[in-house]
Amino acid sequence: MEMTTALWSFALVVGLLTLTPGLDTALILRTSALGHRRQAWGVVLGIQAGTLTWGTLTSAGVTALLTASQVAYEVLRWAGAAYLVWMGIGMLRSRGDGADPEEGPVDGGLAHGWRRGLLTNLLNPKVGVFYVAVLPQFIPANAPHFAAGVALTCVHVVEGLIWSTVLVGFAQAVRGWLRRPAARRLMDRVTGAVVVGFGVKLALSD
User: Which residues form the signal peptide (predicted)?
Assistant: First the structure.
């Protein structure tokens, strides 16, 4: 397989993954729709930083520990589940006044969003396992393993940024409807339930 073919093939696979609604989509939509634009972009950049970290570690062979060590996987899995449940409960308890459960009624800013997005991504061991299982298959035999792996990961990051731009734009478009407290409460309840659900699913997964 040539590197150009590998890039296009990997782009197709992770493109479908990126478009599939999930936890990342819920967090980006919720944060942006509540008017926390800077924080929403922080979430986007944090998620993509996590993706780049997983891809880089996989290219270096470090994430193979997740599949080789049951203890390492379990520790990361339970830490991720606890974080998601804690974050989701915070959203469920929101008063619907636009306040972030952790930051109050104002936009927590880029740094807060980045931390939330990064932790959400890095504490999900399934992302690491996905990279361990999939990424090596797309690295050409005659290509430098580390450099090729990072290049493929960057394709995933670029696609994630493009799709996130669409999500943020959509959320901003419906922001007027979400100015009402009842609509904000509904957004927080739905997103909180989704996040808690992902946390419980992660905790119960084998």
Answer: none
What is the spatial distance between Cα 153 and Cα 157, in angstroms, rounded to a whole number? Answer: 6
List, in sequence order, every beta strand (DSSP E) within 28-138. Answer: none
Rounded to the nearest 10 degrees, the angle between the axes of helix 70-92 and helix 181-204 is 160
In tens, the pLDDT along 70-92 reads 777 787 778 878 888 888 888 78
* Helix/strand/coil for 50: helix
Q: Using CA atoms, how far apart are residues 5 and 11, in angstroms rounded to an integer?
A: 10
**CB-CB neighbours of 130 under 10 Å:** 16
pLDDT, tens only, 166-191: 999 888 887 776 667 777 777 778 88
Q: CA-CA-CA-CA torsion for 126, 75, 92, 106, nearest 10 degrees?
A: -90
Cβ proximity of 27 and 116 under 8 Å = yes
Whole-angstrom distance, CA of residue 89 vs CA of residue 188: 10
Tell me which H or E stretch contains 189: helix 181-204
Are the CB atoms for 155 and 11 separated by under 8 Å? yes
Of 130, 143, 132, give the one whose Cα is nearest residue 5: 143
What pTM was computed for the model?
Answer: 0.79
Q: What pLDDT score does 156 carry?
A: 96
Q: 132 exposed, middle or buried (CB, 10 Å; 0-12, 13-18, 19+)?
A: buried
